[in-house]
Amino acid sequence: MKRIQKMMSGFIIFSAALFVTGCSAGNADSENSGEKITKENVEASMEGEKITIGTSGVFAPFSYYEADGTTLTGYDIDLLNELQTLLGYEVKGGEYQVQDYAPLVTSLTQGKIDVAAAALCATSERQKVMDFTEPYLNSGQKVMINNQADTGITGVDDLSGKTVAVEKGTASHTYAQKNLSDTELLTYDKISGAYEALNQNKVDAVIQDAPNVTYYVKTNPDTTLAGVGDEFNKEEAPYAVALAQDSPYKENFEVALEVLAENGTLAKLQEKWLE
What we know:
The chain has helices at residues 28-31, 75-87, 101-109, 171-179, 191-199, 210-219, 250-262, 265-274, and strands at 50-51, 53-55, 58-59, 63-65, 72-73, 90-91, 97-98, 115-116, 130-132, 141-146, 163-167, 184-188, 205-209, 225-232, 242-244. The protein is of the alpha/beta class. Helix 2 crosses helix 7 and helix 2 runs antiparallel to helix 8.
């Protein structure tokens, strides 16, 4: 197995607060050659390594299934493919581990998977139990309402006393628990359940990441659901690649992301999936 190279200085390191390193690190220290990873030697720097990668499969346009129900697609899937091409690692089992957000985060913190890309927000709480790369996309939360209901909600400041739905284990869930103590909070394993509850007027509002709200409205032209108000909680909602703590792969991924940012790959992904 090729030795994993680790950076020893911070010259080209992305902010250490933003990429979760994974599991099965094993004897990473003994395998470390001590050579600093740079943009010049990052290519194929993980050749021969086999790692376990997780994603969600339920969060369009970042990671979701095509109409056939079996093909994963989205921004994060393209990003993972680009990272694999650059770094040269193999994916254990030949496929990504697809999990809902709560178990995906648990799998990272318990070292059951090495890396995850699933529009994961690098929240301060998650940074205590996992590592993150520099964000590849800055996001925030958004309030969604049903225009058929007269709730008077025009933004996050109007949620007091309302019934609010969120997806379990997400940044929206954490925000609501911390800041909406006077609301009735309902959690759903998948965001589709929260949206359906709003469609049926079983809840007054949904809190979700702004890109997903925008994508839902864009791809459902007949919907009565709409995002309202400004984005909020931006400091807790940047998307980053995640690894379990103390992963030997962190510097490889951080430098690889820097390369993808500089060569225009990230800009192309944003244009393809978000514009």
